[in-house]
Amino acid sequence: MELPFIPPNHLGEKTGQDGYEARIREFRERQSCEAEMFKGLFKGRSQSTAVEKSMFLNSPGCLVCGDNNFRMMSSTLSATKGFMVGFNLCDNHLEVAKTENSLLEYLAKLFKQPPPFQLVPLETKEHFEIVLSWLPKELGCKVEKTNANTMTLVRPSGLKGGFRLDSPGNYAYMIFRSDGKEVARIDSADHHNVNYGSDHLHVDLTKKKGPIESSFTTGSPLIDTKKILELIELKEAEFES
Predict the structure, then answer these.
(1) Is the dihedral of CA 164, 98, 41, 52 positive or negative?
(2) What is the pLDDT of residues 183-237, one digit of tens each?
(3) Residue 76, Cβ neighbours under 10 Å: how many?
(4) 180 φ/ψ angles, rounded to the nearest 5 degrees
(5) For labelling alongside 188, which of 99, 204, 215, 219 has CA 20 to 30 A away?
């Protein structure tokens, strides 16, 4: 068998090497664009919560079916430090995922892998009791009162924090002066146009049109302590000045 001689200047064309720099550049630009939303979320979470590491399972559409109508989802594991996983799901597969104990367990079953953790969802009452036993010490507060799913904590400065914990998607962290006037709030009400919502921060409620921004919180003070304490100390500094 005679093999043809391939001139060196034609080798790149034959092996598909020609233009690889442009293809790599295009891939990186597309990947960066697709992951931009997740990068922004992780940056905010790392500054506001216990999340320190993350991983994004990038896909141009729904991770399951490729549908272009999708939402970016995230699931967070946290102890002393938090780890966040992000991926895209269409509305149909999001509804399926909600039937599992967690989004991570849904992904494990989807790709026929053993679940990385055996998770049992916390009921609202259990979550509330865990937060109540842990949060006052972390914030340097005393418990003033509790009522249903709401607790009120008091700082030595007299500043108060009200925490309503109905569910991760229905919560509020409220900061009050000693005279009872609310001065700041983080909550999950979906009625503000923020980049990463619906969780948002009213940094100054003493003004009728005070700034509103994404809070990057999760609905669990066990993870959100960093942002809560930052807000409390900010308000204490304002009142002292």
Answers:
(1) positive
(2) 999 999 988 888 887 999 999 998 888 889 999 999 999 999 999 999 999 999 9
(3) 20
(4) 95, -5
(5) 99
Residue showing tokens 């865990």: 130
Residue 117 lies in a domain: no
The SS3 of residue 235 is helix
Task: Say how far apart CA 107 and CA 63 lie, in whole Å.
Answer: 10
Which DSSP symbol is given to 19?
Answer: T
Retrieve residue 107's tokens.
């992904």
* 198 and 164 together in one domain: yes
Does the reported pTM lie above 0.70?
Answer: yes
Phi and psi at 89, nearest 5°, equal -135, 140
Q: Is 3 contained in some domain?
A: no
Residue 118 within a domain: no
* Average pLDDT score, the chain: 91
Which domain, by its residues, includes 78? 8-110
At residue 187, φ and ψ (nearest 5 deg) are -155, 175
Q: How far, in Å, CA of 128 to CA of 100, rounded?
A: 22
User: What is the CB neighbour count within 10 angstroms for residue 21?
Assistant: 9
C-alpha to C-alpha distance for 179 and 159, rounded to whole angstroms:
9
Same domain, 57 and 132: no
Q: Give the Cα separation of 215 and 197 in Å (integer).
A: 8
Cα gap 70→193, rounded to integer Å: 19
Are 225 and 133 in the same domain?
yes
Measure the CA–CA gap between 44 and 215, rounded to whole angstroms.
8
